[in-house]
Design brief:
With about 270 residues, this protein is an alpha/beta fold. It has 2 domains: about 5-125, 3-Layer(aba) Sandwich (Rossmann fold); about 140-270, Glycogen Phosphorylase B (Rossmann fold, 3-Layer(aba) Sandwich). It is about 30% helix and about 20% strand. It has 8 helices and 11 strands. Strand 1, helix 1 and strand 2 (about 30-35) form a beta-alpha-beta unit. Helix 2 runs parallel beside helix 3 (about 75-85). The radius of gyration is 21 Å and the shape is elongated. The relative contact order is 0.12. The mean pLDDT is about 90.
Length: about 270
């Protein structure tokens, strides 16, 4: 199967590559990144103009032959529908794009916690988010604890108390006295938490690709629960990451994290349970 994966130019690129890897077993990038159109009514207008006035004109020319188009991200669904129609191939989606009925898609790949009460026959549940990590056990892991930290979404308040508790736990635990501790931060990580990490003289790593190195090289990987994609990547490598319950997630994501724990794909530190 040859897949053309479409995502926005800002988000979902890793998931777009991941779904290709899952279905094709191929890391070669067949990903088309398109500009966001966030306004739902603008998307409807574009589709109206296309299907009523432009559909009979061939204006999408792609040399490679594809069997299907998969879209990741609501803001590019209208463009993906047009491209799939022009190529005469079915459209699939990662997640359930809000505002678009299920019957527009041949299949929808949806995490269990986002499945509705009455899933449709074309909705396929997944335990983790699509990603390109390879399964592999490294028997020469370093004595290192990598703490992967997410951060605030949409400028919401981000609680850091539980993260600090975990940092202090590893610093004080004699079992880990000869382990290196690193905190891998993201653009979303609050500045006051970064300052705390620096004040505690913990190595703070913000380099691109640092998370992927941690999955394969660190004996202990700890991830904040708001970072579902990083948790998914760690699981796919064969690790059982330790998850920090930060108090920053709600609803369906709590359900998803709980399911991963029930499946023994993640663990918690017992002292904090």
């Amino acid at each position: 199967m040859k897949i053309l994966s479409i995502c926005s130019d800002e988000y979902n690129y890793e998931q777009a590559k991941g779904i290709i890897y899952w279905l094709e077993g191929n890391k070669e990038s067949h990903v088309l990144r398109l500009p966001n159109i966030h306004n739902l009514f603008a998307n409807y207008f574009i589709l109206f103009i296309y299907f009523f006035f432009l559909r009979w004109f061939c204006f999408v020319k792609i040399e490679k032959k594809y069997n299907c188009v998969i879209v990741t991200g609501r803001s590019v669904v209208a463009q993906a529908l047009i491209i799939a129609d022009q190529l005469s191939v079915p459209l699939r989606s990662v997640q359930k794009p809000f505002g678009y009925p299920w019957f527009l898609f041949e299949y929808q790949y949806i995490p269990y916690h986002d499945m509705g009460k009455y899933p449709t026959k074309n909705q396929i549940p997944t335990l983790i988010a699509p990603n390109t990590m390879e399964y592999g056990v490294n028997n020469n892991r370093k004595k290192k604890i990598s703490i992967l930290i997410g951060g605030s979404i949409h400028n919401q308040k981000y609680e850091i108390d539980e993260i600090i508790k975990h940092i202090n736990y590893y610093k004080a635990n004699k079992k880990y006295e000869d382990y290196e501790i690193e905190a891998i931060v993201s653009r979303r990580t609050p500045d006051h938490l970064k300052k705390y990490i620096q004040d505690e003289e913990i190595y703070m790593n913000d380099k691109y690709g640092a998370t992927k190195e941690a999955y394969y090289n660190s004996e202990v990987v700890v991830i904040t629960d708001d970072s579902y994609c990083m948790i998914s990547e760690a699981i796919q490598t064969g690790m059982q990451p330790i998850v920090i319950k930060t108090g920053n997630i709600k609803g369906r994501l709590i359900k998803g994290i709980k399911l991963l724990f029930e499946k023994k794909l993640i663990s918690y530190i017992n002292e904090f349970e």
